[in-house]
Amino acid sequence: MNIDSTNEWSLGIKILILVAIMIGCALFGSALLLGLAFMGGMDLTASMDIFNAVTDTALRPYIKAGIGLNHLAMFSLSAVLFAYWIKREKWKSYFQTLPVDFDLLFKFVIVLFLAYPLIGVSALALEQIDLPQWMDSMDEESIDSLMKMLQMDGIGDLIVNLIIIALIPAIGEELLFRGVIQNELVKKIKNPHVAIFLASAIFSGFHMQIQGFLPKLIIGLVLGYAYYWTKSIWYPMVIHFVNNGLQTVLLFFVGDQLEMTKEAAEEPNILVLFIGVIISCFLCYRLAKHIKDQIDEKNIEYT
Predict the structure, then answer these.
(1) One digit per residue, pLDDT tens: the chain, 303 residues?
(2) Is 243 found in the same domain as 137?
(3) Same structural domain for residues 86 and 114?
(4) I need a labelling partner for 97 at 20 to 30 A (CA). Which of 48, 71, 131, 173 fits?
(5) Strand partners for 97
(6) Do 212 and 163 sit in the same domain of this protein?
(7) CA torsion angle for 236, 241, 243, 245 (degrees, to 10)?
(8) Same domain for 178 and 38?
(9) Which residues, in sequence order, are bridge partners of residue 232?
(10) Number of domains present in the structure of the chain
(11) CA 38, 43, 45, 49: dihedral to nearest 10 degrees?
């Protein structure tokens, strides 16, 4: 097959190919996860699920290793196989890997931090919505599973969780959602802002958290523009790692205090929240515009 011909295929065909690759990689990743769980001594015929099993200290290393490999297979391997289908031996160039300007990288991280008030309020707003029981249950199960994964008894658990919760998702999810999905949408949709929004919505929806949809959408937009403006996958990878890693480290050091503070918190002041959101949006916009102008001055070509 002529390599160039794959670029002429419709977006629909590419989506079908990507979905097929992801299904195959997901099955492969699940087999690795179950295999490691079995090696660790988990009775696969029992009612205990994988995330309940991670609370067993004997099973924990096997389950966490399996979850990490499963994520690598489903996201990283899927993205690489799709890129290879498009570019063959030149698959690395598909993801765009211009060198990192650390000044720009630092400013993008600051944009993420400045967006946290907006992210927090968006999460709070969704919490006020009376969702159907099945949606509430889905969110509760997702959060419960994550908290079981994040149980940490020492520095060793922190390092392992930084790898599984921060490093591996930063690589795999950025390769797939920015490197592949956003990349293809930008090629096919005339308005790049619409393409970035759609890719961010897909990224958020894939996490299967109703109340977390808007927060992850906002984070996805920061990651999406970082990739689009710089033409380098390294930027969203590092920003993604910083976001997940910071939350993991905070949970390790002050997790109990955060939970107590949340329980003791009074009803939020709507005016304070509104002002915080306005300030957050304004500062994010100003810094993002500064970053865009800085990139333009350096004559970085992007499409």
Answers:
(1) 445 556 667 888 999 999 999 999 999 999 999 898 888 877 766 555 676 777 777 788 888 899 999 999 999 999 999 999 998 888 988 998 889 999 999 999 999 999 999 999 988 887 777 777 767 777 777 777 777 777 888 898 899 999 999 999 999 999 999 999 999 999 999 899 999 999 999 999 998 888 889 999 999 999 999 999 999 999 999 999 999 999 999 988 886 565 555 554 556 678 888 898 999 999 999 999 999 999 998 865 544
(2) yes
(3) no
(4) 71
(5) 232
(6) yes
(7) 180
(8) no
(9) 97
(10) 2
(11) -90
Together in a domain, 237 and 201: yes
Last residue of a domain, one of 94, 126, 157: 94
**Is-contact 126 209, C-beta < 8 A?**
no
Please calculate the CA angle 211-214-216 and round it to the nearest 5 degrees: 95
Residues making up the chain, counted from first to last:
303
